[in-house]
Amino acid sequence: MRIALVTAAPDNPIAEALRDLGCAAREHAPLAPPGEVVRGADALVVDGADDLDLARFILERCRAHDPRLPTLLVLSAAQLGRLDPAWPFDDFILRGCSPHELYKRLRVVEWRASEFAHAERVKIGELVIDSAAHEVLLAGRRIPMAPMEFTLLSYLARNRDRVVERAALLREVWGVRVAQTRTFDVHVQRLRA
Predict the structure, then answer these.
(1) CA-based nearest residue to 89, from 115, 103, 118, 69
(2) 3-state secondary structure string, 57-119?
(3) 59 Cβ partners below 8 Å, 6+ apart?
């Protein structure tokens, strides 16, 4: 994960924590050009624990340059009363938090901004199932599917952490209570292929 960190503090412990977690953290001065700050970043972290007004200014400049970039604001506990939810940030965290909390919050804001945060899209590894477009991609390549195969794959993907019995598949996907085993077997075989 590539992080743009805007901070006035030299040797900011947030940058060190991000690097320890495997992120590529680039530090920027508060008045750095916003285009330079957001270029190539997966997320933006603005350390406003020392000056919340300056942090708001930075957030507004960067958000105007890239409105979709996930943004995390770092502040002190004393500043919570001044924090306005209308400011352009996606989440906030208190300075001094654990590195793992910082990383998880970054992943949450990144996920919310991603194309996979929508209910009609399911991603499992390199497999992407888009229910709205009725499309399946594997490693970026479109996979043609019959309507019943698509419905079966979508159902299995939404229930990927559960064992689904044959009778449940027949009932939920086909809408029948009797076993049409040959048709079912053919569709399962095609999906496996």
Answers:
(1) 69
(2) HHHHHHHHHCCCCCEEEEECHHHHHHCCCCCCCCEEEECCCCHHHHHHHHHHHHHHHCHHHCC
(3) 46, 71, 73, 87, 88, 89
Give pLDDT tens digits for 178-187: 555 677 778 7
Is 46 in contact with 59 (CB distance < 8 Å)? yes
Residue 143 CA to its chain's centroid (Å): 24
With a CB cutoff of 8 Å and minimum separation 6, the contacts of 189 are none
CA 13 – CA 19 distance, rounded (Å):
10
Asked if 91 and 109 count as a contact pair (C-beta separation under 8 A), the reply is yes
129 residue type, one letter:
I
pTM value? 0.60
What does R_g of the chain's alpha carbons equal in angstroms? 23
Beta bridge partners of residue 130, listed in sequence order? 121, 135
The predicted-structure confidence for 80-107, as pLDDT tens digits, reads as follows 999 998 999 999 999 888 888 988 888 8
**Distance separating the N- and C-terminal Cα atoms of the chain:** 34
Strand-pairing partners, residue 44, are 4, 71
